[in-house]
Amino acid sequence: MSSPRLKIGLYASLVLAVFMLASYKLYRRNDASPPQKDEVLIKAMLQGLSAAHYQPEKVDDAFSKRVFDLYMKRVDYNKKFLLQSDVAQLRKFQNDIDDQVKRGTHEFLDLSTKLMEQRTKDIQNLYRDILSKPFDFTKDESFETEPDKMVFAADAAAQREEWRKYLKYQTLIRVSEMMDEQKKKKDKPLASTSVQPSAATTSEPTRTPAEMEVEARKRVLKYFDEQFKDMAQTDANERLAVYANTIANTYDPHTEYFAPRDKESFDVAMTGRFEGIGASLQEKDGQIKVTDVIPGSASYRQGELKAGDIITRVAQGAAEPVSVEGLRLDKAVALIKGKKGTEVRLTVKKPDASTKVISIIRDVVVLKETYAQSATIKENGKKIGYLRLPTFYADFNDNGGRSSAEDVKKELEKLRQENVDGVVFDLRFNGGGSLQDAVEMAGLFIENGPVVQVRSPQGSPSILNDRDPRVQYNGPLVVLVNKYSASASEILAAAIQDYKRGVIMGSASTYGKGTVQRIFDLDDMLGDFGSLKPFGSLKLTTQKFYRINGGSTQFKGVVPDIILPDAYSYLDQGEKESDYPLKWDEISPARYKAWNAAPPVDKLRTASQGRVASSPSFKLMNEMVQRMRKRKDETMVSLKLTAFRAEQEQAKAESEKYEAVQKAAQPLAIAPLALDLRQLGSDTVEVNRAGRFTKNLKNDITLREAVAVIKDQL
């Protein structure tokens, strides 16, 4: 059987040949006019997608409809610019986009650009006029905040009314923030001092809501002036990039077009050095969404920014915030990142519809906190090992660099020396990484055999095996996952489950990303068009993962053996919630032998369900999740100041209940390994870091239940 690496190399050569053929066809076409950049880019990209994507789509009317729908979601994401008559004009092209890309034309893109430019000019005059007059916050009015529930305005009068409510809402948010700030200053006790403070310094004059409204409208005006100025600077290359990426995204969510600047940002992120807030961001339908918070980063240590949050505004310290709604990802990232030690304030919309201003001091990720770490938990005379892996890291440029598989092996050896009775392996919030490390890591728990199957569009699947018969750890094992466990995490969890080597515990399913992507530099592919460069890059899905039992990890993810109530279960996160995901399927299973001492999963599940049902902490969590789910669906907000403030206070109180649930739980007796503390010696910074690692786990009710499942096996 040929190796997966050889197959991938041959596949890359095939893609290169396809792009070269597309380049040749464009270069040798019959008409005398030289091809333009947009024609070359779109045609070559489609050639590559049609030949090299794992599941190539037919470029027909169905393709055209998908591109139309997705582009309309993005070009006017909150339906504030285009009128219904404009949409009707554009809809005439919904079955013609496939023919346009084949011809090398883009009438749909041209018309949408023309209409958006005209409506932008109209709206600029409109919002300035509306903001010149005060808003009445005593009237009973409401505003819809969910773009999917909004509709395009029927005419100019309806559009004006929608903008009036939108601007009133934006002003209301700022008035509420100013009221919070004023209350905070009032409640803050004066620092003790021997000098008697003057009347001028003891307190600031209390402002009325009406006075705040005047200043808030000025802030909103500045906010939109800056946003519209940025929109006016959008050039043809940026519009082409958005259009090209929309086409790519209709194949699957992980197939993307990177404009040259976007590729630079991607390369910086892949180096592992993140100077800024340390969060992975995604632009989706005009919104900047947090997909991951990197362990060891400024955001991680600050603690308030979470996956699923939507960033709406960004402020440099105390400066006036700038809107990032509708902004391209690279532009939003440029506002958020910055030098170590500087402050950025993010206004975020939480999944439960509450808003929060989060202050983060930018820093470089502390790489040590991204590495595998372990601790011990003492419980009724038993000692349980705890091992956390935040990501599957590997230094691909350095053969002697850090490897997550090697680090996990070392941590398991340290836990063995501690004579632990069982191990809880925590893969929650682990978004994946090195596939090879996932395979090697599975081998630490089994004798040998297949771990994952990797399939390309052509030919039989390749099987990646653990060939080492040694077992690093053979005792009771629980693997913790949640809906943010993805890719390599799912491969490892699936292998442990299929071998019946341990018990998988966590939320209803993992993320569901079971695909492999490769990045192709279009400048290398399109050598005949040097004068039109740079073209950027294309990231496309070329392979799919399958479990050794034959099922895919794509779309469905891994369903745990024991499902626990989860604080994030109300969020619509995961592959199945994205646009145009590849579906689940299955292939023939690989040949493997299950673990001889398989855990009694049914018995363990019944015991766990009994504990969870009688647990006050899990009961409170379930109640909180139900409230959060209800709040998330209630997207209509009041524009009456008193009602709005009450809604915000309620949302804030409910979002804080999770922390209260955790604190109310009986704390775990978890501590860093004695060996690690001896090696740290008198280095207080490192000792404090080790203490912080275990401190955050003491009240983790999910971890407590995982420990109970280990104890049930002893």
UniProtKB/TrEMBL annotation:
Top-rank EC class of the record's enzyme: hydrolase
Q: Where is the composition biased (Polar residues)?
A: 191-206
Q: Give the superkingdom in one word.
A: Bacteria
Q: Which CDD domains match?
A: cpPDZ_CPP-like, Peptidase_S41_CPP
Task: List the SMART domains.
Answer: PDZ, TSPc
Q: Which NCBIfam families match?
A: prc (TIGR00225)
| Residue numbers spanned by region Disordered | 180-212
State what protein this is by name. Answer: Carboxy terminal-processing peptidase
Pfam family for this entry, one: PDZ
In its UniProt entry, the species of origin is given as Hymenobacter nitidus
Q: Which PROSITE patterns match?
A: PDZ
| Enzyme Commission code | 3.4.21.102
Query: Per the similarity annotation, which family is this?
Result: Belongs to the peptidase S41A family.
Tell me which Gene3D superfamilies the record gives: 2-enoyl-CoA Hydratase, Chain A, domain 1, 2.30.42.10
| Any one GO MF annotation of this record | serine-type endopeptidase activity
Please report the stretch or stretches of sequence annotated as the PDZ domain.
Answer: 267-337
Q: Which UniProt keywords apply?
A: Hydrolase, Protease, Serine protease
